[in-house]
TrEMBL record:
Protein name: Helix-turn-helix domain-containing protein
Organism annotation: Parasulfitobacter algicola
Gene3D superfamilies the record matches: Homeodomain-like
Keywords on record: DNA-binding, Transcription, Transcription regulation
Superkingdom field: Bacteria
Amino acid sequence: MVSKETLDQIKSLPLAQMVKREPWRASLPHSETSHTLLWITRGQGRITVAGRRSGFGTHNAIFIPAGTMFAIEPGTGTFGSVIFLPQDERLGLPTDPVHLRTRDVSAHKEFNANLEQLQRELDSERPGQDRAAFAYAALLGVWLDRQHAEEAAAQYSDAATRLVARYTRLIENKYPTGHNVQHYATALGVTATHLTRVCNQVSGQPASQVLNDRVMYEARRLLRDTKEPVNAIAKSLGFSTPAYFTRAFQSHSTMTPSAYRNGAHI
């Protein structure tokens, strides 16, 4: 049986819709409670997954497991789809990030056909619609398995990439604590200098920016999507004082938290 809660987590939307109104929701590092599958049909851009930055282009498929930090910066004229999939073992989805650059035309057609059928079932009210939508979501998992084979493991096998992936996992679990890079480096058994050097190598950003961007994403989300007082938001994100939070936010976004909340960013 496929529960309504599980089916509600299966969604497909155009990439442009994800980034059109508030680009920071895509371009600042964050994670989703569902698995995220990106399918690029035109254009190019950059994506950072688990701290690893790389370029993407047409007919790239990028799978991001739930709870994994990522940020995407699509270029002008980039088109594609974003598919959200539930954390359900029956779908057989990968446990690690996968970035595929497919060249086989038949593989492109197969993915597009499965995605179109999935969307058709999500939009329908026919009997068995829930089972059919789940089945097409599972077929996307099969497609990923067949395409990437050993490629995903090879992409994430080197020591530098593994360290940065561990760092982003720690950030995702602890960013509201206010811990600095030194704390994370100690937890990872390396020096802050080494962690920064490796982050620059893998993601093109220092360790401090990786951490700060994640915190600022959450700050924007809370200011935009909730009515929590600024003081409470500052405290929930580990800032010692509201004034410190205001300075950090203004440095990152060029406006105060209150101005951002009141619509100065629109």
